[in-house]
Amino acid sequence: MPITPEQRDEIDRLRAATYTTRRATVPALEEILYQPIEVLDHGFVRVVDYMGDDSAVVQAARVSYGKGTKKVSEDAGLIKYLMRHRHSTPFEMCEIKFHVKLPIFVARQWIRHRTANVNEYSARYSILDREFYVPAPENLGAQAVVNRQGRGDLLEGEEAAGVLKLLRDDAEQVYGHYEEMLNHREDGTQIDPSRQGLARELARMNLTLNYYTQWYWKVDLHNLLHFLSLRADTHAQYEIRVYAEAMLDVVRRWVPAVFEAFSEYRLGGTSLSRTGMEVVKRLLAGEPVTQETSGLSKREWRELMDQLGRAE
Amino acid sequence: MPITPEQRDEIDRLRAATYTTRRATVPALEEILYQPIEVLDHGFVRVVDYMGDDSAVVQAARVSYGKGTKKVSEDAGLIKYLMRHRHSTPFEMCEIKFHVKLPIFVARQWIRHRTANVNEYSARYSILDREFYVPAPENLGAQAVVNRQGRGDLLEGEEAAGVLKLLRDDAEQVYGHYEEMLNHREDGTQIDPSRQGLARELARMNLTLNYYTQWYWKVDLHNLLHFLSLRADTHAQYEIRVYAEAMLDVVRRWVPAVFEAFSEYRLGGTSLSRTGMEVVKRLLAGEPVTQETSGLSKREWRELMDQLGRAE
Amino acid sequence: MPITPEQRDEIDRLRAATYTTRRATVPALEEILYQPIEVLDHGFVRVVDYMGDDSAVVQAARVSYGKGTKKVSEDAGLIKYLMRHRHSTPFEMCEIKFHVKLPIFVARQWIRHRTANVNEYSARYSILDREFYVPAPENLGAQAVVNRQGRGDLLEGEEAAGVLKLLRDDAEQVYGHYEEMLNHREDGTQIDPSRQGLARELARMNLTLNYYTQWYWKVDLHNLLHFLSLRADTHAQYEIRVYAEAMLDVVRRWVPAVFEAFSEYRLGGTSLSRTGMEVVKRLLAGEPVTQETSGLSKREWRELMDQLGRAE
Amino acid sequence: MPITPEQRDEIDRLRAATYTTRRATVPALEEILYQPIEVLDHGFVRVVDYMGDDSAVVQAARVSYGKGTKKVSEDAGLIKYLMRHRHSTPFEMCEIKFHVKLPIFVARQWIRHRTANVNEYSARYSILDREFYVPAPENLGAQAVVNRQGRGDLLEGEEAAGVLKLLRDDAEQVYGHYEEMLNHREDGTQIDPSRQGLARELARMNLTLNYYTQWYWKVDLHNLLHFLSLRADTHAQYEIRVYAEAMLDVVRRWVPAVFEAFSEYRLGGTSLSRTGMEVVKRLLAGEPVTQETSGLSKREWRELMDQLGRAE
């Protein structure tokens, strides 16, 4: 269960209250405001606040271009133009705040994105809950051979079962010892009243990296899109990609025209090197080109053929 | 007149429309939303959007401290605690967006604050208006002698009149030449249809630094307070300080508990050096201390005596 | 003359002294260390310090990949891989510090790049020199008609002469008045001993935007390359592009393998949209495609045909 | 053993080579360049590169103040002035790069400091070593009662022994299972050739937070000092404080004048609130003040009395 009954009550309370505002408001996003979107076995992501909409991007761009742009009459067209030419500052004019519950090893990848505001649950102050991530069997990939950081075939049978058992048992055991060191039971009572219990800031080091943490994460739309372009990508680890995909859906609700442009130019876009572009031109001119005559390494040639959809 | 009739209409239109939201909403800030607050002779600052309120700071801090802080029952107390101990991340959870019209030389100081999002009017794309800043006579300070970056006595009489005339005449003249180079009249027509007119990106270089520009400036509350602590300070140049003071008023409306804590611990606070604190302790112990026996330089001694309110 | 005799002496003094270090050192960059590279009519850029070399990028990447990358034996290959896959953090491990003298309107574009450290000459403290930029006749472009922020044909004859005269005369005049308001002559004496002189922080507002300022600008290699990819681009204003081009040469000396990869994948690279890539695939498959059947707007179609080198 | 024999050889090789440079060089820092300073049971911090020295701070400040500051003749005095008045940009002109080996739970605190460049060992690519942190008995603090995030008395006797045994045994066990899931022995061979082994990016989640990771961390002097002012503080967790203290020693070697000023005004400095300062003035005027008449809360009164060295 990703959220506690207390959190559920709090969410219901927040969702029940409405206010009158003069600010730009997005009904499709208001609809899901505060609602947790479940991710992995115990995680979630939920929007807790936002600022701006598609028009806020346009409004900012129009300040930059002043009277000079009266002719650009269509907002979606302007947004596509900005995205295509990497004019990023107007996208910084929208802001969103998420509450995320995620495994610690995912949090460690996520936090590399520095241009964001974060408040994380502190295990120095408080005791972490007994919640840890265990992959579903269909995500239990073997080490990839070619791509050193990826997954290959699925583990199966006994090997898979063995891995899942080890992960579960170790996580359970270290949590039991965490409580023992803290001299603390889940109901808040002490295990042994004659002991003091280890400091929380020390005891936490006994937990494994699949334990869940949570944080508020606030970011502007430009930096969110940058995050999503890296983390909703097939090269990203599955466990962070599912968060990115949930957030992509949020972006679609929030700023549909920006989402459209982002899909066309960034998520669905392709980068070609100088030499790769020369190859494309030669091919278009009807010249036969092979890896040997292309000027590309074998790896780059393979990547280019993939991009061009040419089975080799 | 700081705003154009078109801007006035746009503001009235925006203020007339209201929406229903589940987001945290601050009625005292809604009241002035979009309204320009006049600053200097043609400038303004106005709030065009915001995210969060006092409670958003508390909410973020409570995520950090988790269950461990149930006892801190009072929000204002928690906010004071955070401010006193420089726990800055919860203040980053609020965001505000201003539209500002300001002289270019003020914009050049302002932009040094890097942790903010900016979209500025572009004089590459568009033609700047004929609006420039001229100080009011009561702000026409002479160069300070001791403080190399400050102002001393007011200029008076002929000297003051001469300065004002030079500033006005030069600004008028360079604008006339700006239009002449652009081959462009304010009504949009060409001066001489046989000429092409210089590129805007070049012609603008003929304008003086007191011409007004404008931008959208979006910032989180922590970085806004940092900006205000430097720019609402008596060491800041008057022309940026008046913007900071107008924004301080906005902060008071928006997040009154944060404003209270900021006034007590930052704006009204004092930093003492290690040696300065030793002097205070010796004085409290009844020991007579002079600059010579204090271990402080003459300048630091004078600053400390000022801070302690001891006329020398 | 871009540098003063005092600066020349200082540079000669610095260049004459050598030290022994265990740090990574780049002889080709040491060769030009401290030497001003002239840019525009009075500007310059010069390297005053640096940290790291090509190997520092590799070293950082190897820490990330640990033992797992023993097979990537070739440094230049690894650098190309990092550049191609936008693994940017290893490039942040090199740092460079420039001293730049540049017109204020160029400084205003430059400062938008926020991830850098800057110390600028302060006209609150000190008096600016009588040095301003006037374009060479071959850079005196007319306003472009299609591209609202660009330049078109060159101005010629009387129109060009008129513009140059206006720029020069206005700049001279405002400087004269600047000194008059300051009550200050270039030799340091007062014009009228009975006057106080206006505060510097006010008098500077009378200068035009083509006056030169200077700053120290320190940046990591990743952010420098991002700056160069935008500012060494044909869409950048000529007056900032010449600085970017001078700095590109510095990068070539400093980190030749990084420069090579940057040229291949970024400067010389091409981005295609999802639909643009579909068009390329259809063309390669021998299908005739027109703008009408392409799914692209007229503008995007024209851009794509340009990229593919297909005259229409 | 914090470093491997391969690392030792690499360090010796680097230290043996010297180069000639025109850059500012600090012999006292060169002396320890590349040398690991041991921290905790298996960690270290070592300087791998640096840019600038005390003079670089002065040089940058002098650019800002231009000719206006000829009178500030003494460098140390200028550095103290900059530190006292929080003119931070000149301190950004120095840069340093550390290689750090540290437990993951320490890395998670450290990474909150966003204004730095980081390349961390990736457990997606590579296999982590069997090295984990276990506190020395003299650091095994009990949970503090008043300060929810701190440590109180030391654990003793059986309780201490029990904690150390749990930490060690769990860390050993999860590493054994890590290898089993990876199907990998430390010598590089497979445990069971018929199995594929779990992907590294998944297996790592079974490790506890006291396992060591390592990274390159590059930061400018201003942000380093900010980090040190928070992390070399008594409120910081012991396990990060020892790293901060080792780095403080590095700062003392590198930029002694900056270190001096930092100690006087920041590390050794005191912040007083508006009301706290009023109390000091009243006490100095001979007025008796109690908590009740002070306007301070009990907690703040206690903190102020502590700062003033007045036992209550």
From TrEMBL, chains A, B, C, D:
InterPro entries with a match to the protein in the record: Thymidylate_synthase_ThyX, Thymidylate_synthase_ThyX_sf
Binding site residues for dUMP: 109-112, 120-124, 204, 231
Pathway: Pyrimidine metabolism; dTTP biosynthesis
PANTHER family recorded: FLAVIN-DEPENDENT THYMIDYLATE SYNTHASE
Assigned keywords, A-Z: FAD, Flavoprotein, Methyltransferase, NADP, Nucleotide biosynthesis, Transferase
Co-factor note (free text): Binds 4 FAD per tetramer. Each FAD binding site is formed by three monomers.
UniProt record similarity statement: Belongs to the thymidylate synthase ThyX family.
Active-site residues, record numbering mapped to chain: 231 (involved in ionization of n3 of dump, leading to its activation)
Assembly behavior: Homotetramer.
Pfam families: Thy1 (PF02511)
Keyword Methyltransferase: yes
Molecular-function GO terms, alphabetical: flavin adenine dinucleotide binding; NADPH binding; thymidylate synthase (FAD) activity; thymidylate synthase activity
Source organism per UniProt: Azospirillum thermophilum
Role according to the record: Catalyzes the reductive methylation of 2'-deoxyuridine-5'-monophosphate (dUMP) to 2'-deoxythymidine-5'-monophosphate (dTMP) while utilizing 5,10-methylenetetrahydrofolate (mTHF) as the methyl donor, and NADPH and FADH(2) as the reductant.
Protein name, entry field: Flavin-dependent thymidylate synthase
SUPFAM superfamilies attached to this UniProt entry: Thymidylate synthase-complementing protein Thy1 (SSF69796)
GO biological process terms held by the UniProt record: dTMP biosynthetic process; dTTP biosynthetic process; methylation
